[in-house]
Amino acid sequence: MSLRIFEIFHSLQGESSRVGLPTVFVRLTGCPLRCGYCDTEYAFHGGATQSFEEILAKVASYKAQYVCVTGGEPLAQKGCHQLLKMLCDAGYQVSIETSGAIDISQVDQRVSVIMDIKTPGSCEASKNLWSNVAALSAKDEVKFVLVDRADYDWAKQVIADYDLNSKCPVLFSPVYKTLPPDQLAAWVLQDHLRVRMQVQLHKVIWGEKAGV
Predict the structure, then answer these.
(1) Residue ranges for the binding site for [4Fe-4S] cluster?
(2) Which of 36, 120, 152, 202 is the most buried (most CB within 10 A)?
């Protein structure tokens, strides 16, 4: 079997509770969503078909402990589940970054799911698959990417409605160069939210570009 791979690269994890850790990123081509703030539109198309053996050999060449499977939307390719299993079997600590629009219930239980819940500001909130919330466990994380105050207030309500704090860590991330991080920080502190605010470390270091 094979997958359409846009890029495999070694960098620092820029988001989630693993921020700062040296990580191999396996970026799959393609995504069914079109978020207004998307920073990986370049991965909607292109890339090359690679066998699982080729993918694992490339990952191994970087000698890293952590692997993040991302996109685009990696779960849009059916073979993604097999890749996740093979990476776990190989002894890596594996995470997957997913939009929340595709069922996560069949993801290997050893994988940490970093799942977006799309806000109204993304223009794709209608694609949220709310049944995914029931599939989350303590090893997973939910991420809200926020455009503005309206998104922030919406996210607060979703956290309450679905009791997300009892399920897994919750991440708030401001859209790069749109919502000032200090403004989001002020709101989080004022409201005493049980969330981890994050900025995208890789963009702080290298700017907004592919391969980092």
Answers:
(1) 31, 35, 38
(2) 152
DSSP string over 56-79: HHHHHHT--SEEEEESS-GGGSTT
Predicted local distance difference test score (pLDDT) of residue 84: 98
- Structural domains of the chain in order of their starting residue, each with its CATH number: 2-206 (3.20.20.70)
Binding-site entries: 12-14, 27, 31, 35, 37-40, 70, 72
Q: Which residues belong to the annotated binding site for substrate?
A: 12-14, 27, 70
Q: At a CB cut-off of 8 Å and minimum separation 6, what does 131 contact?
A: 103, 105
**What confidence score (pLDDT) does residue 98 get?**
98
Strands lying side by side in the sheet with 93-98: 48-51, 2-12, 22-28, 66-70, 93-98, 112-116, 141-146, 170-174, 196-197
Predicted confidence at residue 204, as pLDDT, reads 84
Residues of the chain with pLDDT under 50: none
pLDDT at 39: 85
For the chain, the distance separating the N- and C-terminal CA atoms, rounded to the nearest angstrom, is: 27
Backbone angles phi, psi at 17, to 5 degrees: -70, -10
pLDDT at position 150 is 98
